[in-house]
Design goal:
3 domains; DNA Polymerase III, Chain A, domain 2; 12-stranded antiparallel sheet; flat; Multidrug-efflux Transporter Regulator, Chain: A, Domain 2
Length: 353
């Protein structure tokens, strides 16, 4: 390479945002050898064509990527490099989440106060309920409390509620042991999802109120701690109490309804309900619908939904059939399991054009 195209190590360091000592380290590790080394002085020089590699190396190290992974990314093609980056980010995010949970457990134990019993519940039932209800939660950074699960216990039953403002899902569980105490709080949804597999494998779990969270205890297993979220959870009771009168109902098989929703193009769906059928079609009417046999009452109705609102509400239902409680084309629809009334989802339609 002509000397005119070479830069001394100091100038190259400024160009790519690395220090001279870092460049020497990466040269000695084989990741970024200099273009030329003066045999008499040992001075190192770099070429302009090495700036892009040096900059990429710096950025990879800034996201805490270890040297072997950096070397693999720099040697890979775009597709493989992207996969390696995604794998590294997933590992970092998972480690950070584990650190947050671990810190919460330590923080809760610092006070030394014993947990206060809330309720004992069957593990598989609680795990199912957590996953079903959390399907209606939201990942809204402006309102982090909507990413949580509202747990309310009155000693005789435990209710779980989540909402993203377009859906509201609630399920009520009956304690498996002696009545507990009254308690209410909004628990971090991510912590509960992480704990769900262990809960499912436990015949019986006990919920205890702990400082800044709840503790989930099961015989023969390590306690799981789930944090409380700050902020006021929307009071869903007035919403449920103020629902308009049900003017019609449709009971339809769950799996065919889900398949029809999944096969639709676009992000909005229209349900035409009349004469013993639920017809599922695109909201824009651009193609024929899929008629599904149903048991219906009330007058004919056409109601539109965002697919991301309706599909999770239907998929979370228990049993082979779902029941839709209808309140006109612009009223909220209550989606229930036809044979299990303790899981209820409220879905808001979108206005007709």
């Amino acid at each position: 390479m002509p000397n005119s195209e070479l830069m001394p190590i100091g100038a190259f360091a400024r160009r790519c945002g690395l220090t001279p000592s870092a460049l020497r380290f990466y040269a000695d590790s084989g990741l970024l050898p200099p273009a030329e080394v003066d045999p008499l002085t040992g001075y190192r020089s770099y070429g302009a064509g090495q700036v892009a590699r040096a900059t990429a190396l710096r950025r990879l190290r800034e996201i805490a990527m270890p040297l072997p992974a950096v070397e693999a990314v720099l040697a890979a093609g775009p597709e493989e490099a992207s996969r390696l980056l995604d794998a590294h980010v997933a590992k970092v995010v998972g480690g950070a989440a584990a650190a947050v949970r671990g810190a919460a457990v330590v923080r809760a134990s610092l006070g030394g106060a014993p947990g206060v019993p809330i309720a004992a519940l069957k593990g598989p039932v609680l795990a199912d309920a957590v996953e079903q209800v959390l399907s209606a939660s939201a990942g809204d950074p402006e309102t982090p409390v909507l990413a949580g699960l509202r747990i309310e216990a009155d000693g005789e039953e435990v209710s779980l509620t989540a909402t993203d403002r377009y859906r509201l899902c609630t399920r009520t569980l009956v304690p498996a042991g002696a009545p507990g105490r009254a308690w209410a709080g909004t628990v971090d949804g991510g912590d509960l999802r992480a704990a769900a597999p262990a809960i499912r494998r436990s015949p019986l779990v006990r919920l205890e109120a702990a400082p800044h969270g709840i503790r989930i205890r099961a015989a023969g297993r390590e306690d799981r701690y789930c944090r409380l979220l700050a902020g006021e959870f929307p009071d869903h009771r007035p919403v449920l109490a103020s629902l308009g009168e049900v003017t019609g109902r449709a009971t339809v098989a769950k799996e065919p309804l889900l398949r029809a929703l999944e096969e639709l193009p676009g992000d909005r769906v229209a349900l035409h309900i009349a004469d013993g059928a639920v017809d599922v079609r695109p909201a824009d009417g651009g193609r024929p619908g899929t008629p599904l046999p149903a048991t219906t009452t009330g007058g004919a109705l056409r109601i539109r939904f965002e697919l991301t609102t309706l599909h999770p509400a239907v998929s979370g239902a228990i049993g082979p059939d779902v029941m839709l409680d209808l309140r006109g084309h612009d009223g909220p629809v209550t989606i229930r399991s036809a044979d299990r009334g303790d899981l209820t989802t409220l879905a808001m339609p979108v206005p007709a054009p």
